Amino acid sequence: MKSDRLLSILLLLQTRGRVPAHELADRLEVSVRTIYRDVEALSASGVPVYAERGRHGGIELLAGFRTDVTGLTADESRALFILAAQGAHAALGLDAALGSALRKVMAALPAPHRPAAEVTSRRILVDATRWRSGPQRAVDLEVLQDAVFCDRRLRLRYRHSGEREPRTYTVDPYGLVAKAGVWYLVADRRGAPRLFRADRVRSARLLDDPVRRRPGVELADVWEVLRRQVEERPEDGIDVTVRIRRERLDMFQRMAAGQLTGLPDDGESDWVTALLSYPVLRAVRQLLAFSDQVEILDPPEARAELLRAVRSVTAVYQGADRGEE
């Protein structure tokens, strides 16, 4: 709509100062001629806007002119107040800044939109932390942030999952990504994309060398490559068939959601059959948490693995009892 486009032009000029007509045309996906017609319409409505031709010309507002029009619709106003997701801003040390920014936005909102935005901030809460995720190691993102914003290389001491000792890496950071409550550093190492969990970084040191990113590659591009590598990684997994007591089914579905691949309907039986997929055989030990409420039906090697786990646990406690005697 023309009115939306006129408002967009006004807000862009207010934010950017002088803007070339062709750039406005590209941003708004119209012709340069249309932009000049819109500028005439703004001027006719009392907005002090003018255009200068030539190599260094452009469209500009008269110095000192400001408008209190935000251009936000009711839905846009509400959307802004859902930004205050707990966790992410706190980890970056931006909780206070976010609160201050939202108060300023609230003051600038058109009066009819303020009640809806205020109610949204009280009625919608975003918590990105998973249920039963366990205690998380404290993450210090300060040095990682410095490297990202200062465009400097990083020297990391990083401990991989399953390894006791950390390794040392020199990396070229693209940025930080928060996924499901977990922070990741996205970086290149020797020109290849790598992903580092922030809570496994044992130490980080900013180097004097400028970052060496691949030309034309942005954080979103590298993250997409790494995300697909994780999600599409081929695994020599094992498919397991189990049965669960019906009264425990809801909890089972929550706790084994990442492994659940099928849940055939067994009618009104006291037991429900489920199909699971694990990356390695040893991972079936997760089912110990359900005691005798879950039974592995197939394959035999999965039953044997769980039996070995039960014997190991039994041996530990029998040994403890002997020590007490």
Overview of this protein structure:
By secondary structure, the protein is of the alpha+beta class. 38% of the residues lie in helices and 23% in strands. It has eleven helices and eleven strands. The protein has helices at 2-16, 21-28, 32-44, 74-80, 88-91, 95-108, 114-123, 142-150, 219-231, 249-255, 300-324, and strands spanning 49-52, 58-61, 152-158, 167-179, 182-189, 192-197, 201-210, 238-245, 260-262, 271-278, 294-298. The strands form three sheets. Strands 6-5-4-3-7 form a five-stranded antiparallel sheet, with helices on both faces. Strands 9-10-8-11 form a four-stranded antiparallel sheet. Strands 1-2 form a two-stranded antiparallel sheet. Helix 2 packs across helix 3 and helix 4 (74-80) packs parallel to helix 7. The relative contact order is 0.06. The mean pLDDT is 80.
Q: What is the element layout, followed by pairings?
A:
Blueprint: H1 2-16, H2 21-28, H3 32-44, E1 49-52, E2 58-61, H4 74-80, H5 88-91, H6 95-108, H7 114-123, H8 142-150, E3 152-158, E4 167-179, E5 182-189, E6 192-197, E7 201-210, H9 219-231, E8 238-245, H10 249-255, E9 260-262, E10 271-278, E11 294-298, H11 300-324
Antiparallel strand pairs: 1-2, 3-4, 3-7, 4-5, 5-6, 8-10, 8-11, 9-10
Helix pairs in contact: 1-3, 2-3, 4-7
